[in-house]
Structures are given as structure tokens and as C-alpha cells.
Amino acid sequence: MRAAVFYATREGQSQRVAERVATGLRARRVEVDVINVKDVRGSIDWTGYKMAFVVASVHSGHHEKEMVEFVRRSKDHLTAMQAPFLSLTLSQASAEDPKATLVQRETAREDALQMIYDFARDTGWQPSHILPVAGALTYSKYNFLVKFVMKRIARKAGFEGPTTRDYEFTNWPAVDRFVAELAPAA
Fold this sequence. Notes:
CATH architecture: 3-Layer(aba) Sandwich
CATH superfamily: Flavodoxin domain
Number of domains: 1
Oligomer: single chain
Number of helices: 6
Structural class: alpha/beta
Order of helices and strands: EHEEEHEHHEEHEH
Helix content: 40-55%
């Protein structure tokens, strides 16, 4: 069996998640192509794939435009394959933060789900399986303006870490369980 893991990324966290999905699939003896949709020229030869995953991160409240366009063009294939969708957002980090209040966690969870809903509305694709994934704050990769904005967003979410380092919030065991639940047995 062969699978495709499509991703779109800005600072690289979605690629890391896509690679982790691929590792989980390979452990189940699935051949995997990991594809950055930014590099897709023309159409995909879907006949070679029995399974697909879609991984995209959120920036300024929206998923990457190249992923939105890719999914619009590919929604029929993704639907036929019952492709799962992993949506990376810092809102999910707040939803999983044990130090946050119940109200803060629930508000963040609703925010993460709203961005997934907006993605589905904008693309016309209704993923059969969805996993909100906590992303990363990669201050080292941001320009001054983005760093300033991201620090404000992080502070609003209750995170006060210094901008002199990067922070990863991804719940890797949750990603692994998601893949294990959806991948064929080895």
C-alpha cells in the first residue's frame, strides 16, 4: 500500500508533523510520499495512492493559502480516500494547557475548531477524521514584526516565555495514536 502525506508549512512544524505521520505509516509497512503542496506543479497522480493525510498550520487565523488551494482542487480525491486532516494551531496548545482554567481551555478549543470549520467551508472538503494539533512558537524564524505579533498572541493565551528561544507544544503521542487508529495494521 502507498500513501501520500500532504503538508503546507511556514516555519517547518507542519513538515515535522507530516514526517511523524509518515514514520507511523512506515512502521505499518505503508510506503509513503511526503509532499509539500507548495512544490506541487500540475496534478497529482492519485492512482498510486490508497491513503492520504493532510497536515496544515494556521497563521493569523487561517490555514496556509497553498493548502486551501490544493484541497479545493483535490477535495474529491481526498474525500474518496477518507483522508484525515491534522490542523496545527497555537490555540490547541492553550486547549491542552493544564495550567489554564477550564474556561480558557474551552475557549481555545472552540477557537481551534472554528479554524477547522472555516477551512472546510473555504475548501468545500469535509475531512472524515480531524485532529487539532498544538503547533510551535519558532521565534528564531520570525522577522521583527511577526515576532512582536506572535509574542502578543502567546501572552494573550497565557504564555510568557522569552522570545530568545523556540517552543514546541505538539503532543506527539496524540499524533502517533491518531495515525495508529487510522493506518492499516502491520
